[in-house]
């Protein structure tokens, strides 16, 4: 699916790539849509679980928020997870089963961001009247920047993208830029 895209991949392509019969795949998944749904849902659940692990680690609210930002930003333009999600976003415009999973994933990210921000507010580290709104804005901004980073080689480095994310986060949670690592 990463080579051909979600829409263009056939069950036969998957069977060949995984060295199993198409019949075995159809035994477990009635349609290609069912297979895509299961794959995206499993990937989404894994990412949200990993994010939960990241925020449950030690450190201040700023350190935890910074770990979330660094995790969100792909390690390279060829990051296979982000390429999969970009492809899923395009497919989700027309396919309700994909759109539903994308909304679940976005909801998970936003909920976790809001949780980190709320905990920072409760501890007096952050100053934010609307943690959910701040999380939604940060999520939307990061999505846009990551799309630009992934699609436009040379337009922005990962380091610059992270700097934009940190600056936006400082505005959202009411702290100075110096609170984040250099």
UniProtKB/TrEMBL annotation:
* Protein name as annotated: Transcriptional regulator
A molecular function GO annotation: DNA-binding transcription factor activity
> Is Transport found in the keyword set?
no
Q: Which organism is it from?
A: Acrocarpospora macrocephala
UniProt entry keywords in alphabetical sequence: DNA-binding, Repressor, Transcription, Transcription regulation
Return the annotated DNA-binding positions. Answer: 10-29
List, for all copies, the residue spans of the domain called HTH tetR-type. Answer: 1-47
Superkingdom per UniProt: Bacteria
Report any Pfam family annotated for this entry: TetR_C_6
């Amino acid at each position: 699916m990463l080579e051909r895209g979600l829409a263009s991949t056939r069950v036969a392509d998957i069977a060949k790539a995984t060295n199993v019969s198409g019949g075995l795949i159809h035994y477990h998944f009635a349609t290609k849509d069912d297979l895509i749904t299961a794959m995206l849902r499993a990937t989404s659940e894994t990412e949200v679980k990993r994010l939960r692990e990241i925020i449950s680690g030690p450190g201040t609210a700023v350190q935890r928020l910074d770990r979330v930002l660094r995790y969100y930003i792909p390690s390279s333009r060829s990051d296979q997870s982000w390429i999969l999600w970009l492809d899923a976003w395009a497919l989700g415009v027309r396919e309700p089963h994909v759109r539903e999973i994308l909304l679940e994933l976005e909801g998970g990210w936003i909920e976790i961001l809001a949780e980190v921000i709320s905990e920072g507010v409760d501890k007096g580290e952050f100053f934010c009247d609307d943690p959910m709104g701040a999380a939604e804005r940060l999520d939307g901004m990061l999505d846009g920047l990551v799309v630009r980073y992934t699609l436009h080689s040379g337009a922005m480095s990962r380091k610059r993208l992270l700097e934009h994310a940190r600056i936006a986060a400082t505005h959202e949670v009411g702290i100075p830029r110096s609170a984040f690592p250099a």
